[in-house]
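Budget justification note: compute hours in this period were largely spent on complex prediction jobs such as the one shown. Inputs:
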Amino acid sequence: MSEQDEHRTPVSLNGLSADDPHLQPAAKNPATVEVVISITFVLGTILVAGFGAAYWVNAKPWILGATMGGGLFILGVGLVAWGKYLMPRGPFVEDRHEFANSQADRDAFAAAIVERGGSVVKRRKMLAGLLGGGLGIFGVVAMFPLLRSLGPLPKGTLFHTDWRKGSYAVDQTGRRVSAGDLAVGSIMTVFPEGTQNSDRGQAVDQTVLIRVSNQRFTTQKGRETWAPLGYVAYSKVCTHLGCPVGLYEQQLQLLVCPCHQSMFNVTNGAVPQFGPAPRPLPQLPLYIDSDGYIRAQADYNQPVGPGFWERG
Amino acid sequence: MAGVLALGPLALFATSAQANPLNPTATTRKNSGTPNSNIVVKKNGTVIKYGDKYITYSAPSSKLDALGQALFMENCASCHGTLANGVPANGVVGAYPDLVGLGPATIDFWVASGRMPAKDTTAVEAPRRQAALSPQQAEAIAAWVNSLQPSFPYIPDPHLKNANVSDGAALFALNCAACHTIEGDGDALAMSTFSPSLRNIPAYQVVEAIRTGPANMPRFTGNLSDKQVNDLTKYVTTEIQHPNNPGGFGLGGLGPVAEGFVALLLGVGFLVLICYWIGERT
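Corresponding output:
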C-alpha cells in the first residue's frame, strides 16, 4: 500500500496525532489557496456591497441580478474551495453510539408512567371546553375576513352588461361607428358609448363587430333583424374562461379564442364547433339609426362570459 | 352600359365622399384606404393617386398593362382563367378566386410576397416564399387586372417619419396580436391554416395586408385610419422586426416554453458540473 493510498483510508479521529496526514489540508500549497480564496471573498464582498448600492440607487434589473447573483456565486465558490482544500483532508470515520437507552432508564420511565398516570393526568372538562370555545369562535371569526376578502357580492352585475336599448357602438377612442365604415370581411372591437375607457367596459362590454355581408344577415331563427347590412356583433368574452375572442378567420368564418382554441361559427350564431367553450357567444341585436350610426337594440339576452354559480 | 357598370365604383369614389354601403369593399370613412381622402389626384377623370400625409396610394402605371397581361397568361391564367375571373373552387375554400375588382394592392401583395404563383395549388394556404416575380412584374400584373375593372385600394406608400410607435404598439395588441402573437411570430389557426410571421416584410406590404385582408386575415378598411395604419406599420417594421431583447437572446419569441427549455439545459447542466466539483474527492 503506497503512502498516497494510506492517506485515503478512513481513520477514527480518536487518538489521531496532530501531524497525521489525515489532518493536513488537501492543498499542496495551502498558502496560495488561501490567497485565492481571500480574493474570491473580497470580490464577493465588493459585488454584494455593489448590489446594496445598486438597490439604493434603483439601478436596472440586470445590474441588480448580476451583482447579487455574481456576489453570492463567488462567495459560494470561495466557501466550497475552503472546505475542499483547506480543511483536514480526511476521510474520517466515527462509530455511532448506541441508539437505545439503557435498560434501567427504560424501566424507570415505564414505572413513572404507571405510577403517576392515575393521579396527575386528569380529565379537565372545563379547560377543554374553554379551549374548544376559543378555537370555535376563532373559526367563526376567521370566516369573515375570508368572505370579506373575496370582494363585494356581484349581485346582478354578472347578468347584465352596459349595452342598453339605443347604445351607440364606439371604437376604443370613443368614435361612433357608422354603417358605411366597415368593408365586408372587416372586424373591429366596439363598446357601448362611454364605457370604452372603463375597466368594466373593457371586461364585460367588449364586443366584436364583424361585417359578414353587405345585406341583412340572419345568424339564427328569431334573430332576423339583429344584423342589419351584414353587421354581426358578438360578445368578445369567451364562454370558456373569459379570454378576448379577437381572432377572426374571414374565409372560414370562424372566431377563434387564442387561449384554448375554441372556435365559434360566425354565420351560425357563434355556436362553438371545436374546443372547450360550452356555450355560444351571446349575440348583440343591432340596428342602424337614421343618421347611419350602429346602435344596440337591447342588452345581450343572456349573461356574457364564462359560467358562474348563480347562472344555473 | 357595360362601361358605366365597370366604372361604377370608381365614379362613386371620384364624385362623392358618400360611398354606397352596399359595395362590399367600400367605406365611407375618410382617410382609411379608399379615395375619401385629403389628397386625390385625378387625370382624365381617373383617380391615379389618393391618401393623406401618412399614406399615399398610387395606381399602377397603365403603361405596364401589356407586360402585365403577358405575365398573367404565363403565370396565373392556368388557375384564375384568362379573364382573371377564377374557376370553380372544387370544394377548397378560397381556391382559384375571381380576381376582378379586388384592387391593385391585393394583386400586388400576393405576387410580391411570393405567395403567388402558388407552389402547391391544392394546399390550404399559400405560404410566403422567395418571390418568383420582381416587384415591378407584380405591379404590372396588378396594372392589367386593374384595367379589367378599376378598383381600390391602390398600392400604398407609407410615410413612416410621421408615425407614432407607441400608438402603433397599442393598436398591434388590440388588432393583430390575437393571431400573429404579441411578438409578431405568427401561430397556428383553425383548420390547418396559420398566421405568418411578420419579421421580414417590407412596410408597403404590411399596409397592403392590413388594407386588403389576404386569405383568412380580416380586412381593416374603415376601422383603422391611414394614421393608425401608419403607426402600426412603423411598430411592425421597427419593434417587431428589430426587437430589443433585454436578455440577449429572443429565442424566436416563442415564450416560456423555449425559455424554460434553455434554462433547464444550460442552468441544470451548469449546476450538475458545480455539484460534481463540490463532491469530488481532493
